[in-house]
């Protein structure tokens, strides 16, 4: 039944016991309900009896081309509706297109539901009862589960012009109107700018933005994050976020995560990945190397000059009195101390690191071992002279060299033990120059010598130095007894 549809047609025959149908549109007096003019029309003839008695008589639908007929209503429902409508059945009032009657908005869904049922039954009858009029045994009774499948398969245009379909869950597709709140001429109103029916239909030309421009504004909730920034979602607002930059040695793993680079790497400029930290070493042209190298060259030159002088005057009384054998040993130790400077600046590798371990403390051990032996020789000679005129033992040049090399061998023994316990190798220290700004981070290539190992390496040399320093003043007590001793002890 579709309210508001009007048309001329013949009067439907009326069953007995029912009131007369409303007259056709345009006939009779309007009576006390002038807004109810018009006729309520429908396809075919339908008469609703007393709904309270659940009785109805629906004649067959009209044949194609048959005229429309008016519908007569009676019963408790009609009697209860008339007082609220302002119309009177007794006055034969009509509801038409020009009446004040306003149909409820949800009636169209009821009509579409009836049509959906009709289309489903029609399709079911066509498939199960082809060529038959009325119900066939396969539809008597109707299988509800099978009928539901046909209902979900219907597809037709509803009374409002919208397609009527159902999805796999039996739900009708959502249809939404999209409104925009617009200000025009000092008044505000909502304007339809689009709709949603399975997909978005948006009419950009109907949209208005601040400043009366058509340019789409940028989102004020959250702008896209730049490379190297992660999204931190705002609590309670999953579509909004804050952009936080990856700091320090972090790089961007994905849109929401920053991760620290490995210890030997630093982030790239845009912090989207990691790259190796540059490795540096002490260069020969570095200011930190030029001055030590200059002093080493001067020291080596001076040492060689003294050696050449000693060799030239090797048999003179002065050279002999100074203990030329130990003097040569002392000069050799000084020469090693200066040459070690070149090993400290050379590029660290297995060979360079091994030579550093050997010669770093060996030169000082040789020098102080020779000085200690000479000091001890003078002390024993004059102490023995106080008790007897015989010479003390082990004061010959060969004995002095044997004592000196015995002291040096202890240093070499310690170095050998160190090589066995901790083999020499080079390492890259990434912590020494790990700055707060990763752009300036550097890895330092150096030999693997810890502070403790260095102290142990130089500890023996320091012991010889302290012993020689403490024993040195003893020779001064014998300055008046022997001029030779007075000339040797100040060397300490």
UniProtKB/TrEMBL annotation:
Q: What GO molecular functions are on record for this protein?
A: G protein-coupled receptor activity
Which residue ranges run through the membrane? 288-314, 326-346, 358-379, 452-474
Alphabetized SUPFAM superfamilies for the sequence: Periplasmic binding protein-like I
Could you state one GO cellular component term attached to this entry? Answer: plasma membrane
Pfam families in the cross-refs: 7tm_3, ANF_receptor, NCD3G
Q: Which stretches of sequence are listed as region Disordered?
A: 1-38
* All copies of domain G-protein coupled receptors family 3 profile, residue ranges: 288-492
List the keywords (alphabetical): Cell membrane, G-protein coupled receptor, Glycoprotein, Membrane, Receptor, Signal, Transducer, Transmembrane, Transmembrane helix
Topological type in the membrane: Multi-pass membrane protein
Q: InterPro entries of this UniProt entry?
A: ANF_lig-bd_rcpt (IPR001828), GPCR_3 (IPR000337), GPCR_3_9-Cys_dom (IPR011500), GPCR_3_9-Cys_sf (IPR038550), GPCR_3_C (IPR017978), GPCR_3_CS (IPR017979), GPCR_3_mGluR4 (IPR001786), GPCR_3_mtglu_rcpt (IPR000162)
Cellular compartment(s)? Cell membrane
**What's the family?**
Belongs to the G-protein coupled receptor 3 family.
Q: What is this protein called?
A: G-protein coupled receptors family 3 profile domain-containing protein
Q: What is the native source organism of this protein?
A: Diceros bicornis minor (South-central black rhinoceros)
């Amino acid at each position: 039944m579709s309210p508001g549809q009007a048309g001329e047609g013949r009067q439907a025959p009326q069953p007995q016991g029912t009131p007369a149908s409303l007259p056709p549109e345009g006939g009779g007096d309007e009576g006390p309900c002038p807004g109810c003019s018009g006729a309520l029309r429908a396809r075919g003839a339908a008469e609703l009896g007393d709904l309270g008695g659940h009785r109805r008589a629906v004649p067959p639908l009209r044949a194609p081309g048959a005229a429309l007929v008016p519908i007569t209503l009676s019963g408790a429902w009609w009697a209860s509706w008339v007082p609220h409508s302002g119309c009177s059945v007794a006055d034969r009032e009509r509801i038409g297109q020009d009446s004040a009657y306003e149909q409820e908005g949800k009636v169209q869904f009821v009509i579409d539901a009836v049509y959906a049922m009709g289309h489903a039954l029609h399709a079911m009858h066509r498939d199960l009862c082809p060529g038959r009029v009325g119900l066939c045994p396969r539809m008597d009774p109707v299988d509800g589960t099978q009928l539901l499948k046909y209902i979900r398969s219907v597809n037709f245009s509803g009374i409002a012009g919208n397609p009527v379909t159902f999805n796999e869950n039996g739900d009708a597709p959502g249809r939404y109107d999209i409104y925009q709140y617009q200000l025009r001429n000092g008044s505000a109103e909502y304007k339809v700018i689009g709709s949603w029916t399975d997909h978005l239909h948006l009419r950009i030309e109907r949209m208005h933005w601040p400043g009366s421009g058509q340019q789409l504004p940028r989102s004020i909730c959250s702008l896209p994050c730049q490379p190297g920034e992660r999204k931190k979602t705002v609590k309670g607002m999953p579509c909004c976020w804050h952009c936080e930059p990856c700091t320090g040695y972090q790089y961007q793993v994905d849109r929401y995560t920053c991760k620290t680079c490995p210890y030997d790497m630093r982030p790239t400029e845009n912090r989207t990945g990691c790259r190796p930290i540059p490795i540096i070493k002490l260069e020969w042209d570095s200011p930190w190397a030029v001055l030590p190298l200059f002093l080493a060259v001067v020291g080596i030159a001076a040492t060689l000059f003294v050696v050449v002088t000693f060799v030239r005057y090797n048999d003179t009384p002065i050279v002999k009195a100074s203990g030329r054998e130990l003097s040569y040993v002392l000069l050799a130790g000084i020469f090693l101390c200066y040459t070690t400077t070149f090993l400290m600046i050379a590029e660290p590798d297995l060979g360079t690191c091994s030579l550093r371990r050997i010669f770093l403390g060996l030169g000082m051990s040789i020098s102080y071992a020779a000085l200690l032996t000479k000091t001890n020789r003078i002390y024993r000679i004059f102490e023995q002279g106080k008790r007897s005129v015989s010479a003390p033992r082990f004061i010959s040049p060969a004995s002095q060299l044997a004592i000196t090399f015995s002291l040096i061998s202890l240093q070499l023994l310690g170095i050998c033990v160190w090589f066995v316990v901790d083999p020499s190798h080079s390492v890259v220290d990434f912590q020494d120059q790990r700055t707060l700004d990763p752009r300036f981070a550097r890895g330092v290539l150096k030999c693997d010598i810890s502070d403790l190992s260095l102290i142990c390496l130089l500890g023996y040399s320091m012991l010889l130095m302290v012993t020689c320093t403490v024993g040195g003043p003893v020779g001064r007590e014998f300055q008046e007894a022997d001029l030779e001793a007075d000339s040797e002890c100040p060397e300490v």
